[in-house]
Give the backbone structure.
Amino acid sequence: MAAKTSAKVPQMSIEQEIQSLQAYAAEYSNQFTMLSEQLKFIGAAKAEARASIEAITALQNAGCSGTALLPLGGGVSIRAAVSDVNKMLVTIGAGITVEKSAEESISYLNDRITEMDASEKRLSESIAKLQEQMQAVDARMQQIYAAVQAQKA
């Protein structure tokens, strides 16, 4: 049977711990910013999907004689007559566009909103965990500061 050997683990100096905590704080701050931006992007995408559903519904209610603003780019749009309000072209990802009925388009958009809601929930949970970690780092830095101040007194 091999004898147990216990190696002493060198304790981190206060300066090293502070540097480590500052690095964690900076990394957590960067992650927080990135996750917050993703959350904003999802919110904007959901708003766009909802606006699309409203536009499709309005076109259906207007019948075949509806008009719409067709964006040309650069903030320029043109009024265009919509000849068939029951057929939509839907981009489903990777540059692929398919033809769907108005009802199928609305269903697709509602499904996308549901997926975005789930992503939003996961991101919010990640942000909450990150905030807890940030608070733990801050609390430890406050403990170190208090200990250093007590030694000086």
Helices lie at 14-62, 102-152. The radius of gyration is 28 Å. Residues 71 and 77 are 4 Å apart (CA to CA). Strands lie at 67-73, 76-81, 87-93, 96-101.
